[in-house]
Amino acid sequence: MAARAARFNQQVLIDTTPLPDSIPKVKEIGATSAPLLSAAFFIGARCKPYNDDYMMCKTEANGRGELECMKEGRRVTRCAASVIADVNTHCLSEFRKHWMCLENWNQQLWQCRRFERDLNKCVFENLKLEKVIPGAPADEIPVHLRKRQIYAHSYANM
Amino acid sequence: MGVPFEALLPYGIIVGLFTFTGVTLGKLRRMQNGGKTARHSIDQWDRQMMDRDRRITGYLRGQSDRPEAPPGFEVNSPWRLEKRFT
């Protein structure tokens, strides 16, 4: 747990000792940045209680959260992995199209609303998970449901 | 008489050379980014996620959507070392 980010670092040390056996093992999530961004709101929809638990544990731990909140962290990992596994089984092609589009557009969600609409529809029908933007004002249409994306570069993907 | 084409040839050469440079540099940047457009305006979060991508797939812009990480992922996180200033 470094107190600050490393500056001018020239060397990197990779310590391959695994965690001790007293800590229960959980498989880490293998999804990289674009698929995770694509599935993020669905992970939030299904895993909200576990995520809130973990965040509260980390806030209350006052700096020792990495050591003390491992149980909540395992729950978060398992829930997120279950969401990704479900999306893979039911909506793989829409999921892949969406995150490949995101990769081409600097991972900006507003450039790829066309594929996002297909993905949202498929996930809602199969997994009953709906994308909700927390903290959005209730009297306006949420950004992902608007017909025109004012910052999108390409009209084809709007 | 119309415009003599010989007068426009130098302009054609200039435009052609600029186009060649532009297209070549664009293709090189695409090749460096695994066939995709380059990322821009990356902040520390994006850098950290791209580092994680490299740990999972081996390429900075490689992506995978498996729910489980490949076997070495739990132990290959780097500790960045600094030299001491004495």
From TrEMBL, chain A:
<keyword id="KW-0249">Electron transport</keyword>
<dbReference type="InterPro" id="IPR016680">
    <property type="entry name" value="NDUFA8"/>
</dbReference>
<comment type="similarity">
    <text>Belongs to the complex I NDUFA8 subunit family.</text>
</comment>
<keyword id="KW-1015">Disulfide bond</keyword>
<dbReference type="GO" id="GO:0005743">
    <property type="term" value="C:mitochondrial inner membrane"/>
</dbReference>
<keyword id="KW-0813">Transport</keyword>
<dbReference type="GO" id="GO:0006120">
    <property type="term" value="P:mitochondrial electron transport, NADH to ubiquinone"/>
</dbReference>
<keyword id="KW-0679">Respiratory chain</keyword>
<keyword id="KW-0472">Membrane</keyword>
<keyword id="KW-0999">Mitochondrion inner membrane</keyword>
<comment type="function">
    <text>Accessory subunit of the mitochondrial membrane respiratory chain NADH dehydrogenase (Complex I), that is believed not to be involved in catalysis. Complex I functions in the transfer of electrons from NADH to the respiratory chain. The immediate electron acceptor for the enzyme is believed to be ubiquinone.</text>
</comment>
<keyword id="KW-0677">Repeat</keyword>
<keyword id="KW-0496">Mitochondrion</keyword>
<protein>
    <recommendedName>
        <fullName>NADH-ubiquinone oxidoreductase</fullName>
    </recommendedName>
</protein>
UniProtKB/TrEMBL annotation, chain B:
<dbReference type="InterPro" id="IPR017384">
    <property type="entry name" value="NADH_Ub_cplx-1_asu_su-1"/>
</dbReference>
<keyword id="KW-0472">Membrane</keyword>
<comment type="similarity">
    <text>Belongs to the complex I NDUFA1 subunit family.</text>
</comment>
<keyword id="KW-0812">Transmembrane</keyword>
<dbReference type="GO" id="GO:0005743">
    <property type="term" value="C:mitochondrial inner membrane"/>
</dbReference>
<feature type="transmembrane region" description="Helical">
    <location>
        <begin position="7"/>
        <end position="26"/>
    </location>
</feature>
<keyword id="KW-0249">Electron transport</keyword>
<keyword id="KW-1133">Transmembrane helix</keyword>
<dbReference type="Pfam" id="PF15879">
    <property type="entry name" value="MWFE"/>
</dbReference>
<keyword id="KW-0999">Mitochondrion inner membrane</keyword>
<comment type="function">
    <text>Accessory subunit of the mitochondrial membrane respiratory chain NADH dehydrogenase (Complex I), that is believed not to be involved in catalysis. Complex I functions in the transfer of electrons from NADH to the respiratory chain. The immediate electron acceptor for the enzyme is believed to be ubiquinone.</text>
</comment>
<keyword id="KW-0813">Transport</keyword>
<keyword id="KW-0679">Respiratory chain</keyword>
<keyword id="KW-0496">Mitochondrion</keyword>
<protein>
    <recommendedName>
        <fullName>NADH dehydrogenase [ubiquinone] 1 alpha subcomplex subunit 1</fullName>
    </recommendedName>
</protein>
